[in-house]
UniProtKB/TrEMBL annotation:
<dbReference type="Pfam" id="PF13468">
    <property type="entry name" value="Glyoxalase_3"/>
</dbReference>
<protein>
    <submittedName>
        <fullName>Glyoxalase-like protein</fullName>
    </submittedName>
</protein>
<dbReference type="InterPro" id="IPR037523">
    <property type="entry name" value="VOC_core"/>
</dbReference>
<dbReference type="InterPro" id="IPR025870">
    <property type="entry name" value="Glyoxalase-like_dom"/>
</dbReference>
<feature type="domain" description="VOC">
    <location>
        <begin position="9"/>
        <end position="143"/>
    </location>
</feature>
<dbReference type="InterPro" id="IPR029068">
    <property type="entry name" value="Glyas_Bleomycin-R_OHBP_Dase"/>
</dbReference>
Amino acid sequence: MSSKTAIAGIDHSIIGVRDLEAARETYLKLGFTVTRRGRHIGWGTANYCIMFGPDYLEILGIVDPTQFDAGLNDFIRIREGFLKLVLRSDDADMTARHLKAAGFDMQPVQDLARLLEMPEGDVKPAFKLMHPKDGNLPGFSGFLCQHLTPDLVWRPEWMAHENGAKAVHAYVILHQDPESLAAVYESFFQEPVVRQPGRLIVETGGGKLVFIHPDQMDQLYPGLEWVGPLEDGTILAASIAVEDTDRTEAVLSCNGVGHLRHGDGSILVQPGNTHGIALAFQAL
């Protein structure tokens, strides 16, 4: 965490799906441990999470179409896949002060809670959320989150995965001009960025954001079958750090999940097998 910003890297991503229970089964077959179901209080959405040591994946679906869904229904009418990225703040007030001083226009801090269905009865994880106003963080679709009750969701039994997954190493995001984003992300995170031809690598303090031009997709992920949008800010892929890709491949093969093994040892699971996201497993 930067002492100037209280931003502690990437907290989680949100995968929007049409059938929440089917998506749960999909991610179990991919070798992940999936939490018990959570339900957002006052909203029509529910989730399952895949917890790692520093971060997690959130699988989000609609369980009551008559209630507020934060734009999920509009998204899944078009496709499934990454809906949002969420950055972590260890102190929402400090982060808000940093971002205001750096010239970022943010919405007021909001409170959110959800009910997590446990055998001993429901528990209530609670959060503080901060949303950038439109246009303040180009190429980024998401918000910031401070966990008020982290022990309720980071449970040891949920962080051990059959496929050996340890963390999300990076998220890959499409953008027509990655270089143009350099200054704004250096200011936001107070971290240096790395410029490469057609790419910009942003250090967040915990995980990377990798912005690439769409013509870099096949170079980064040979054989990728992508039928999703190519617009700026489209979240294409997650790179999952694992203990051993041989172990990961054995789990995928045993469970009948199609995948590609690349020459560098990494494994690619196509969006058609993941509810709309590219998953790359790497031994890191």
